[in-house]
Request: fold
Amino acid sequence: MRYTPNSPNVVEEMLRSAGFSSLDELFTDIPEAIKLKRELNLGTGRGEMELSREMKGLAAKNFTTEEYPCFLGAGAYDHYIPAAIDQLLLRSEFYTAYTPYQPEISQGILQSIFEYQSMICLLTGMDVANASMYDGGSALAEACNLACNNAKGKKVLVPDTVHPEYQQVLKTYAISGKMEIVTVPSAGGVCDLDKMISLIDKDTACVVIQQPNFFGHLEEVEKLADAIHGQKGFLVMAVDPISLAILKPPADLGADIAVGEGQTLGNSLSFGGPYLGFFAASKKFLRKLPGRIVGQTTDTEGRRAFVLTLQAREQHIRREKASSNICSNQALNALAATMYLTLIGSTGLQAIATRCHQSAVYAAQELQKAGLKLKYQQPFFREFAVLLDDPAGANDRLLQNGIIGGYELPDAMLLAFTEKRTRAEIDRLVAVLGGRA
Amino acid sequence: MSKLIFEKNLKGSNNFTIPPADIPEVDIRATIPASLLREAAPALPDISEVEAVRHFVDLSHKAYGVDNGFYPLGSCTMKYSPKINEWAARLPGFANIHPYQSVETVQGAMELLYNMQNLLAEITGMDAVTLQPAAGAHGEMTGVMVIKAYHQHRNDHHRTKMMVPDSAHGTNPATANVVGFDVIEVKSNSRGLVDLEDLKSKMTPEVAGLMLTNPNTLGLFEEEIQEIAAVVHEAGGLLYYDGANLNAVMGISRPGDMGFDVVHLNLHKTFSTPHGGGGPGSGPVGVKSHLADYLPIPLVIKEGDKYVFDYDRPKSIGKVKNFYGNFGVIVKAYAYILALGAEGIKDAAQQAVLNANYLRQHLKKDYYIPFDRLCKHEFVATAKNQMDENGVTTLDIAKRLTDYGFHPPTVYFPLIVKEALMIEPTETETRERLDDFLQAMAAIAEEARNHPEIVTAAPNNAVITRVDEVTAARNPIVKWEEQ
Reply:
């Protein structure tokens, strides 16, 4: 199946009209020595029916969260996605458009980004937000980079309760030499506050805290905020947007930069991507933020209009002096998030967050009734770790019982609960883990 | 202008519900410390489903995609996105799988990733490929980190500089800086190609590598690429291929055979996945064998009949994003490559180059083309004639094109050409569509000559006129606030 529409006759006519005698003549500027003298080893093309059969065949080999209730979380969550979202995302004016560099014919996309930025600010309480980053982990790395670029020192304190992949991404970005990552051991499944605070000094650019943390626990943040601000450093928080329906927003806890994974806002699990990272900050960072920002202005007739703004920060203008190298972001995923928040509204978001929490509380109680112990005794949002001798074996048993189990820790299993999980599913989980099924 | 979603608020109109609880309700004030609870819910708009749907449909009417019409945005490869690929990525077996499921339960996804690594290695002439980077610039960052790690592991710590041509995409110097290199700019010569003498004169033992786009941003093939590669390699540097323009040469010449050590691809350009109004993209990185150890973890490997993740790569730079990449985008690009096959991939490159040369030949009657010779998938025209005659600029022409129903080309880039109009038609356009565009460009040239005020006032048919960008930047309003 090809998508080139010109027939061989038309191709011939176009060649002649452009002054060429053959298609090969279009490539005479490429030295013979580096031309491929054979056909690529890609196989022959498939027609659409063959292709759809082949793609279906591959998809059918995967066990889906539709068929198997899923208790995995650890940074990606199985939430319900309202049907209207995908219908709207399939408006091809949205999904086949490029970045809205030409404002006059892109007002719809620009306005949707402006609405997205506004909603992220509402959730986080922060002053400003950009148009999106790649994901939660890369957003955190960019946040720490921003902090280091605007602080005296370059030390970044990270408790090991932050998602391990976020920590890995941060360490990878630090190859730049512009950040010095210090991992701080936790105590009892939460950040060791005394230890963290004792490590803060004048070389500390920022401290990172994840809320809820990787284990699902709620961290105490305010003392940390005071300590880092006392040394003129910044507080960077990674937050879960669903939890912000009921949890105190990062701005109220003293965060200077708030980032997070936006997958939960209307984006499918898709084996880890595409998701979106959101990035919000206090006003002082507006002219230094990474990525695109949409601003409100007027047209020459005085009507309200939207436009990509403060572009002097960005790579296509600033080149090596840009605040980040990001160009493409996750615009369509951010649009899904905007649609999601619009469709469920404040009360819907609160109901979902509350249900996630209640289901987790119920599961924790039932597991304990079944004789199991939680790894930590800490307040949690919708995720916690239950102690098990053999987490991998337990996951195998769960799968045999039609359940996708949790994230395996060395001596425990991290279980996540969304509004999609029913009592019957949780009871079955407890029965299997408790050895009664 | 459309009202903002917040201005459509009608208290009590949102009817979204979740199923009634069949578990005991919990008072969150009993289970979550009061100091961590939010006082008031975030004030999201309160809107009915029908009005929400109409809002976004209304916004979609104020956007322009490839499905609306011709989109000759240079360096962006705005080709048609086949619909079967959208369908495939939405199959429950791809859309509804969690990244931490055990590999036994996602063998179809693993097989797809494994095959994709191999297909992209074959297309680029590289030995190993990571699919993890989320976008082109993210791929650049990954590739440049790999270069840095390679030199570091060889205790070659004095290589602190990255060379970038003056015609390069802005992401190249930005990436080099973000990874911690100082940027050395290499000049272009009078033919629009890398100035080999300038390159030689700036090449020192401190140079870690050279980032190059080939064909370059003028749409011209770097004919001396073998000499360039030799200069860089002899000095101990590595050669980086910015794959933004791979569409011009796929199936015809491979970066690996040109002498490149690292390459990133843009699946959202070359391999037809839609641009999404700015993303998501996908930026896989391929490397030659001497750099394979440094790629991000994990790669997908095959053990017997089973596909597994290989995390045991001690020299790896680590991870550049969570999980394994923009999987949903990779699914679409995979379907595209299968559909085209070897012949179709080459055909796409040939037709892309033909369409660009067809436009170039016919456009030069009215527009000045600074490097008017055989081009690849794109070329750069300018508004020089119109500027000299009546002060009509590239921006004016771009805006006027929208009145004729076309998306404008990339404007004012590359920076080395004044009043640049960078035109990339792609292979998925009919001759009729290209002729319509040529007619519109001729009509605009005529207007610029005789009625320049029409062009300088454009657009005349859009929902708004030109916007005040200065005020937007001086007094930024970047979110809605309750009045």
In short: DSSP finds 16 helices and twelve strands in chain B. The first strand of chain B starts at residue 128 and ends at 130. Chain B has a mean pLDDT of 97.
